[in-house]
Amino acid sequence: MNTKIKAGISAGLTVLFLLSLLITNFGNLLSPVGGIWNSSNQAYYPKYMEIQDSSLDGSILAYRDNMGIPHMFVESEADFAFAIGYLQAQDRLFSFDIQRRFVKGQVAELMGPDFLDSDKEYRLIGFERLGREMWAALQVSTDPEAPKIVHLMERFCDGINRYIRDISPNNLPMEYLYLGITPEAWTPLDICALAKYMSYMLSFLPYDLTTTILADAFGKAFIDVVMPIEPFPFETPVIPDFSAPEDTGQPLTKGPSKSGSDEYLTLAATLANQTLGKMNHLKSWIEQYGGCSNNWVVNGSLTTTGYPILCGDPHLPLMLPSIWWEFNYVNIHTGESLYGVAFPGTPICEIGMNNFIGWSATITANDVNDFYIEKLSPDGSSYLFNKTQWRKIEQVTEVIKVKGAPDCLMTVNFTRHNYTGDNFQCPIYTSYKNHAVSVKWTGFDPDPGIILAFYKMAHSMNVTQFQNALKLYTCPGQNFVFGSIQGDIGMFPTARYPVRNATGSIKDSDGFFKGIFLLNGSNGEDEWTGYIPFEWIPQKINPDQMYLASANQRTVNTTEYKKYYLSFTYDDGYRARSINRYLSAAKPHSITIDDMQRLQADTFDVAASVFIPYLLEAVKARYGGTISDPWLKQTIDVLTSWNRSGTYMDRAEVAPTIWYKYIDLFINATFYDDYAKKNLTGAMFPLVPSLENLMCYHPDSKWFNDTYTSQTENSTDIMLLALNRTIKALRTSLGDDITEWKWGRVHQMDIQYLMGVIPQFNIPKYPTDGDDWTINVAAGYNVHAGPSMRMIIDFSHLAKNDTYVGFLSYPGGQSGNPLSPHYRDSFELWKNCQYHSILFPLTSEVYPTDYIEATVVFKP
Amino acid sequence: MTWTEKMQDFLKKLGEKTLAFLKYKHLSITGFLFAIILGALFELGGWWYLMLLAGGFAGFLMKKSALASLLIGFLSIAGVWFCFFIYFMIIGPIFEFTALITSILGFLEGSPEILILITIIIGGLLGGLGAMNGTYLAGLIYPQKETSEKMPLKGK
Questions:
Q1: Cβ neighbours of residue A805 under 8 Å, at least 6 residues apart?
Q2: Partner residue opposite A32 with nearest CB, options B85, B126, B143
Q3: What percent of chain A has pLDDT over 70?
């Protein structure tokens, strides 16, 4: 064989080998430099890092403590923004970069056609466009702080982008290598788009669609059964006794029940069904993660220290990397400081404290979006009828790239409902028989109030400044709980809440508030006329009861607050009842930090404590003292004992398993027959408090009658039916040995890395306490959401400028690198309802040196 | 031939053989070092595919037999990559990470160090194949020269 042939064979082999490495991506992945091994190398923070950047105003000293939390000592606020950007990117670059792709509807480009639906859903809302509009509005805002905030946001992005430059191309996190992508520059538009996305997830509710479907089937009055518009006697609103400026509202009256033959309602229900089909991602978010959180604050007269204590545990998706990132900064010249948590990718301190005040938040669930039925022109649906004229539909074409498939072109149609000066686009979801559905949401308003408000809240020094900051706040609705070293406490369920009284009435012709069902978009009668004035938003400072608590329950007692409609889609209210039950019983100067920690970990189920005695009574009434069925007898014995010892959702107990199944089947046994006859078995069933109301106050309600039988049933019959079904179901699924029906066997915490894409990075599932109605919430059998963070601020320490001012923990850790010791170090604390101390040093000199794990120095 | 002449002849032959040996080794060592330095520089830049070039330069310079070039190229780049992993062992939890990766991939579980070995072999093969191609390229460019300078055999 001559040399040429040998050379040819050799070259061919080499090319084949090279191609195989390129095609399989093994070359990039396994390369020692730039390959996956970097994730291992970057698992630990370098003990000392020095970063030079000529754009800095001065030097920054940043200590990473033993939890990886950065404490930054800066010379200017702009430098803080740069440093937080850099350090946040060091911990979480990939997670917030991939989040940006979700928000912008660019995931199918990476992952393929499976993600096309979510991309379409997000592009329909248009977070990228909304972010762009908000950023533009912030730049031209007349607020005196706006130019500074614009600069800070740019500096934050500079910090992230500096980090991206420092690690590109060879030290990128391994996820980038795996996906074959590189991070693009981070911009203020991205911050705004993420803010809009979080607003959407925490405030945009599809319940108007559900109620319309149910109203078509059962009549509008049924809504008072499903989600009561008026409060039940057992409810405890967020604001205990709101003194409105002037009470001239109309009395709340309900209209007559409409039958299903109402033509317009039937059309609305059809459109509502179609629209619901286009928001699967939102529905799945609500089902899986359902927004519910707790916060409360107690006045100094109730605490042992004489200063307030503030607690907050926002319930959000439990995931890895954690949804939160913790930080602290001190301006060494002005003394200003801040400690709190931010959503990665943003510099905004959502929850936290400064030297004077602290705050936390829960969502209000007040109604900030409406769906409108639009009238389309008969000529190909290019025009909508708006009050008096035909208006051309605006269109935007979106090109969605799809991995392994041709690009997908999507046309987004918009209309506007701008009778009162607002001029934002309202996307159109669907059309049917010359009608369409559009949506108007306060989040479409480009007003940058949310960013301005958070900045000013973080710089407030007292309750007045905090309240003034909130006047700018836009969306999503949040119950901001407040405490200060001056001893003030407050609760502010704030947002821009729309007023729908274009006809001079906030109610429709049936007497129902406009905003509960689909609205008419063509006659102008259901248009928004502005926002509820701030002073009319229920709020409270220093109440007589000496504490304030929110858990997503009803904002205010609507039998007393009549001027404006807020919402009807509140949480069940059981967590709020638990918190109020404890705090209202507290004696003066008795509450300690330990008490608050115990309360955050509390697993007492108020709902069970109400329902179980009724069930036991029903069994007693039916069977007397002799129960012949051994399964029923064992079940009743277990429930009786549990009821006596307090209905705690303990994972080692059997009774919680029975209770959880029972309440589900009790609702089902009550309403399934009615829903099935209307083909609505997939629709939303009434909530547990509605059932409580029927069981306690209307035991002979028609809803208890099983329409499949010839007899007339009451609540006792249905309770016993549900109990028998419960026993049967549990024997089938868990076996005949009742002692093995432990709650922890079926109720498990499931915390996943980026929605479970790499199971090895998940936290293995484990049995856990709690349920949907406990303060320490853990809803469903497979728990994916819960207290995303637990924080307690002790204002007695803050007032004394102590270095430790409270406690905090969250499921996960600072780092997004699965190999880092800080990937899940906070999780171990959180799991056991423990905390790390909040280290809040006011100068670098008092920083406890034994806490320093790494030092980063930024120099100009 | 006198004893002295025999001694001189012996020393002359010994000298020639030593020189030939040294020349052979010299080229090999030069090529080996060349590949190591280039390989390390290219890898520090993150250009793993340039291991072929590093090996290629060395092979072109050495003009050994194809097998010898393959071996020297392989050892040089594998050595470089091995050194990187020694460094990784010092600064990070490389074995934990490899265990995690092998569990994700679903093979080599229980013996994660084999993935590191495979990685080093891949680097070595890139260097070796590069060197072999370099040697052949030299042979094609300079056909008049013997591209394979063999080690002088005993007694010849």
A1: A339, A353, A793, A794, A797, A798, A838, A840
A2: B85
A3: 96
Contacts of A644 (CB under 8 A, 6+ apart): none
Dist CA A223 CA A513 (whole Å)? 12
Q: How far apart are CA A138 and CA A130, in angstroms?
A: 12
Residue A620's pLDDT is what?
Answer: 94
Q: Cα distance from B114 to chain A (closest Cα, Å)? A: 13
pLDDT tens per residue across span A7-46:
899 999 999 999 999 988 888 888 998 888 877 778 889 9
Q: Which two tokens stand for residue A203?
A: 């405030």
Which helix (H) or strand (E) element contains residue A312? strand A309-313
For residue A645, give the nearest of A603, A681, A674 by alpha carbon.
Answer: A603
Q: DSSP labels for A625-672?
A: T----HHHHHHHHHHHHHHHH--B--TT-SHHHHHHHHHHHHHHHHHH
Confidence of residue A170 (pLDDT cuts 50, 70, 90): confident
Nearest residue to A549 via CA among A574, A576, A527:
A576
Q: Which two tokens stand for residue A788?
A: 């995303």
Contacts of B44 in chain A (CB under 8 A): 33
CA distances to A621, A697, A717, A781 from A614, in Å = 10, 12, 12, 24
Q: Does residue A426 contact residue A439 with C-beta atoms inside 8 Å?
A: yes
Assess if residue A631 is contained within a domain. yes
How many interface pairs between A and B have CB atoms less than 8 angstroms apart? 103
In this complex, the residue of B48, B94, B137 whose CB is nearest that of residue A31 is: B48
Per-residue pLDDT reduced to its tens digit, A458-480: 999 999 999 999 999 999 999 99
Give the residue-averaged pLDDT of A445-456. Answer: 96
Query: In which residue are the tokens 């520090």 written?
Result: B44
A840 pLDDT more than 80: yes
Is residue A611 domain-resident?
yes
Within-domain flag for A727: yes
Range of lowest pLDDT (A98-107, A578-587, A811-820, B12-21): B12-21
Q: Which residues contact A495 (CB under 8 A, 6 or more apart)?
A: A203, A364, A366, A368, A442, A473, A474, A475, A476, A477, A478, A537
The SS3 call for residue A691 is: helix
Mean pLDDT, residues A207-211: 91
Q: What is the pLDDT of residue B86?
A: 92
Indicate which CATH number applies to the domain containing A739.
Answer: 1.10.1400
Report d(CA A170, CA A177) in Å as an integer: 10
What's the pLDDT at A502? 76
The whole-angstrom separation of Cα A201 and Cα A368 is: 12
* Boundaries of domain holding A621: 606-746
pLDDT in tens, B50-102: 999 999 988 888 777 888 889 999 999 999 999 999 998 888 788 888 887 78
Number of helices (H) and strands (E) in chain A: give both, helices first. Answer: 26, 33
Q: What ipTM was assigned to the predicted interfaces of this complex? A: 0.79
Q: pLDDT digit string (tens) for A495-508?
A: 999 998 877 778 88
In A44-107, the DSSP E strands lie at 48-52, 60-64, 70-74
CB distance from A166 to chain B under 8 Å?
no
- What pLDDT is attached to residue A259? 39
A530-531 vs A60-64, strand pairing mode: unpaired
Measured between CA atoms, how close is B22 to chain A, in angstroms? 26
Q: Is the overall model pTM greater than 0.90, yes or no?
A: no
Among residues A199, A211, A696, A168, which one has the least CA distance to residue A454? A199
User: For chain A, what is the domain count?
Assistant: 1
Neighbours of A2 (CB within 10 A): 7
Q: Is B146 helix (H, G, I), strand (E, B) or coil?
A: coil
Q: Average of pLDDT values for A762-784?
A: 94
Which residues on chain A are in Cβ contact (under 8 Å) with B98? 40
Q: Which helix (H) or strand (E) holds A392?
A: strand A389-392
HSE toward the beta carbon, residue A358, CA cutoff 13 A: 33
